[in-house]
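Example record

The entry below shows one chain as it appears in the dataset: sequence first, then structure tokens.
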Amino acid sequence: MTLEELIEEGNTFEMINVEAHLEPAGYFQLKKVPACSYLNNPDKFSAWIQKSKRFLIQNYPKDCSIDSFNDITIDEITQGKIYDLVGVLIALKEIPSICETKKNVLTNVQNINVSQSQNINIDIVLQAIKDELGRNGIEDLKDIEGETEEAKKQNLLSKLKGFGEATLSNILANIITNPTIWKQLFK
């Protein structure tokens, strides 16, 4: 199978348009049949879509053209979509260089985020604290003093206990149930 053959086969598909009309409905009555469009040979069209997908996956594995064929369903086919699909194949024939899909580009961005996971985790913790304590609670924490680090820690613990057990439980639950933390917890 070649691109030329796929293009040639794709050009054979046409939508058939049926105008609105009246049809006999029995007992001397007529029923109105609305206008509609249909594909004369949907089985062959579906097979062509699958052949095109396989061809693209084998010959252009990272190319964005595959998305055009993955996103199509037989129920939503129009003549314009048929032209678009054939156009994708013609474009590949005339400009065969690979145009990577957006999905592959996003994968690279995700790799960058993974290397910054420590910063993200700190942000998650800070956001959970801010969400639960609110502005006033954060201000109360800022005012905590102590002559030594241990004294400051004890004053902080007392203040946190003063917020109540439910508040502390909610902070911890917000941190643990964050999707980033959740995934890392169960690695």
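Notes for this example: Confidence is low (pLDDT under 50) at residues 104-116. The longest strand covers residues 21-26.
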